[in-house]
Amino acid sequence: MTDKPSDKPKLRSRQWFDNPEDREMTALYLERYLNYGLTREELQGDKPIIAIAQTGSDLSPCNRHHVELSKRVRDGVTAAGGVTMEIPVHPIQETGKRPTAMLDRNLAYLSLVESLFGYPLDGVVLNIGCDKTTPALLMACATVGIPAIALSVGPMLNGWFRGERTGSGTIVWKAREMHAAGEIDDDEFMELVASSAPSTGYCNTMGTATTMNSLAEALGMQLPGSAAIPAPYRERGQMAYHTGRRIVEMVHEDLTPAQIMTREAFENAIVVNSAIGGSTNAPIHLNGIARHLGVPLDNDDWQRLGYEVPLLVNLQPAGEYLGEDYHRAGGVPAVIGELLAAGLLPHPEALTANGQTMVENCGDKRSENPDVIKPVSDPMLKDAGFLNLKGNLFDSAIMKTSVIKDEFRQRYLENPDDPMAFEGRAIVFDSIEDYHARIDDPALDIDEHCILIMRGAGPIGYPGGAEVVNMRPPNYLLKKGIHALPCVGDGRQSGTSGSPSILNASPEAADGGGLALVQTGDRVRIDLKKCTADMQVSDADLDARRRALGQMPFAPDSQSPWQEIFREKVRPFAEGMTLQGADAYREIGKKYTP
Ligand code: FES
Ligand code: MG
């Protein structure tokens, strides 16, 4: 009796299309979805309806290839007995969106939640790629709770200029310095930067995009190997097909995001992030995704689980190679295989989207090019994770020590009397505009013993948080060969930047954090051994400064309705920059009846 079709668990979409208790509504829902040629067989039989959450569009060049790939997803879904409905996701283009794409992560999240919750959908393929598209879509599937699988668009091909690899984003920082130092003119500047983006796909460096796509795989939300296949490669289309097939099975198995993205999965992802040299945006996004699942995760976890993990992946900005090399060396499965072999992956038994565990998927995978993906016995660097700094400047701020260059290390961290600590005179900028206006002003008298501080660049201050903490020194110091000063700020930094900044400071200045109180000329002490960052100012003086602060300083007026709403509701970076109240809603798609 159990194999009679009527005993099968009913698909969620049948609450719209085949609801015996409400034939009138069923007819209404049906006619509107039949009108473009779908049949009753497709909508009322036992075929799961699979959403393709489409993040590709003309506005989003990094993800635009998803428009093509979705055809292969559709073929896979159809072959496995499902029906697809492609749905638009609010566009998030990292480099094109003003004031910052980060502002729109939560907007795309909210809109996808409503689409998945309010329409007749049984499962979803998440088209991930460009930086914020990955966390926005993972957050949304966490909230809705229907079966979900992610598909990376894949990185761009390697960029080349005069016989050398040029990586997206990273080349901009280098070209900017060359331009400032007078080594290249305006046209060469444009040509050099454009050379880094030779094809469709996401950034080919280990920036936030490669990081978040790799971590979506490390969390178990993609098929093994999916993150790193370059967008134009044939394997990318094949991966799209397999992903489409698999989501149909996942719906029949009722394999939901909460079963895959467990606390164990996040711990694995933190370790993988260190091994790949992942972006400082990763803690914001993973802490945010975890919050929507009810999984506790904070920046202390990042330091405790991630700091002592070695850097294995030799990709720019910390290393030399790019996306194609990463894929050819084995991609994420090879990184996880190397970590497993050394006993460094904390949870080998974590479940993944293909129904297998991490160790089943990656246990026998190894690097196919030890120049690009190193074994644990011969890493690029030891202790490649993030430090979580605290003090009277902020409660939490992240530092990526793996990108500290020798020049910086020698100047600031290798003083035998005070190893791993330094003190300097603060130079404080109240906004990005303030920084640009004054950085080269000789009156600031900036020397190599100064610490640059950027405030007004956090989620409320900017809004969304600007990627501006990696501040270049004044031109007169660059010409003297000083390429990096210590930088501290409540904004973010591009994952493609190689600056050893202390960033994502929470709470931000506009939220009354300690950064609101610091003044140019204050002595600031950073101790990387104790993980502290403090202004050398008495508590009494800090109290007096706080009393003198106006209402919501360091936050200019909002320019749009969403900015207004976002600022009112947003939590600090350390808490994932999620919206207050949003995480009270979990697995809402499972409970819904129309
Ligand atoms: Fe879109 Fe880098 S700007 S992936
Ligand atoms: Mg960025």
From TrEMBL:
InterPro entries: Dihydro-acid_dehy_C, DiOHA_6PGluconate_deHydtase_CS, ILV_EDD_C, ILV_EDD_N, IlvD/EDD_N, Sugar_Degrad_Dehydratases. GO terms for molecular function: hydro-lyase activity; iron-sulfur cluster binding; metal ion binding. It comes from the Bacteria. Residues 371-576 form the Dihydroxy-acid/6-phosphogluconate dehydratase C-terminal domain. Keywords: Iron, Iron-sulfur, Lyase, Metal-binding. Residues 47-361 form the Dihydroxy-acid/6-phosphogluconate dehydratase N-terminal domain. NCBIfam families: PRK06131.1 (NF004784), PRK13017.1 (NF009560). Belongs to the IlvD/Edd family. PANTHER family: HYPOTHETICAL DIHYDROXY-ACID DEHYDRATASE (EUROFUNG)-RELATED, HYPOTHETICAL DIHYDROXYACID DEHYDRATASE (EUROFUNG)-RELATED. This is Dihydroxy-acid dehydratase family protein. It comes from Psychromarinibacter sediminicola.
